[in-house]
Automatic annotation (TrEMBL):
<protein>
    <submittedName>
        <fullName>Ribosomal-protein-alanine N-acetyltransferase</fullName>
    </submittedName>
</protein>
<dbReference type="InterPro" id="IPR000182">
    <property type="entry name" value="GNAT_dom"/>
</dbReference>
<dbReference type="Pfam" id="PF13302">
    <property type="entry name" value="Acetyltransf_3"/>
</dbReference>
<dbReference type="GO" id="GO:0005737">
    <property type="term" value="C:cytoplasm"/>
</dbReference>
<dbReference type="InterPro" id="IPR051531">
    <property type="entry name" value="N-acetyltransferase"/>
</dbReference>
<dbReference type="GO" id="GO:0008999">
    <property type="term" value="F:protein-N-terminal-alanine acetyltransferase activity"/>
</dbReference>
<dbReference type="InterPro" id="IPR016181">
    <property type="entry name" value="Acyl_CoA_acyltransferase"/>
</dbReference>
<keyword id="KW-0808">Transferase</keyword>
<feature type="domain" description="N-acetyltransferase">
    <location>
        <begin position="17"/>
        <end position="182"/>
    </location>
</feature>
Length: 183
């Protein structure tokens, strides 16, 4: 599964979006995304970026992770302007279990236009068509309604709540787990 996924990784296109590998040239667009407090509210235990060097490190991490087959991320580019407005991809790739985790984030200025629904549809189709992955899972903080609704619209099923699962902002918080199966 994992080898097929990485061997077939490529730019994905729709009329409106181009999903392409992230490069160091994307640093300033990434900074715009990750320096926004609303975008970062439910982003693991990280605070909004304050310095461009944090975005540069993020870009480097995405490049390295793809090269080393740790995880795959696409930059979501609005074709009309050429601007990178978000990222999405797969990590926690469990080859033996044919299971991957999905992740995504969108520049605050572009929320509510079905950009992420379109982007995730593309990468989910990519994963199922180009590998024998069986399960795509997602972990969401309960107050993150936008993320939960987005996943449900894409066919993900809520499986339950992992109680006190993660240390976040100084306290242990619950996390919802959702998944989409090949079948
Ligand atoms: C989650 C996020 C990517 C959604 O992106 P988006 O492009 O605005 O979402 P979409 O416009 O594609 O919405 C998809 C569906 O979710 C629903 N949705 C989106 N935001 C919603 C909200 N705030 N409340 C309720 N439903 C919402 C939409 O109604 C839409 O359903 P529809 O097709 O039936 O209308 C964006 O809010 C974001 O970047 N959040 C911060 C990062 C983050 O939380 N990442 C995930 C961590 S688990």
């Amino acid at each position: 599964m994992k080898d097929e996924l990485f061997a077939n990784y490529k730019t994905l296109e729709s009329d409106r979006l181009s999903l392409r590998p992230i490069t160091l040239d994307d640093t300033s667009d990434l900074f715009e995304i990750y320096s926004n407090k609303e975008v970062m509210l439910y982003f693991d235990d990280r605070e909004a970026f304050k310095d461009i060097s944090e975005a540069e490190k993020m870009a480097k991490d995405y490049v390295e992770a793809l090269k080393n087959k740790w995880s795959m991320r696409w930059g979501i580019v609005l074709k009309e302007t050429g601007k990178l407005i978000g990222t999405c991809g797969f990590h926690a790739i469990s080859d033996y279990d044919k299971r991957i985790e999905i992740g995504y984030d969108l520049n605050r200025d572009y929320w509510g236009n079905k950009v992420m629904k379109e982007a995730l549809s593309m990468i989910i189709s990519f994963a199922f068509e180009n590998s024998d992955v069986n399960r795509i899972e997602a972990f969401v903080e309960p107050p993150n309604t936008a993320s939960h609704m987005l996943l449900e619209r894409l066919g993900f099923v809520m499986e339950g709540t992992l109680r006190k699962h993660e240390m976040c902002r100084g306290e242990l918080i619950d996390i919802e787990i959702l998944s989409l199966l090949r079948e």
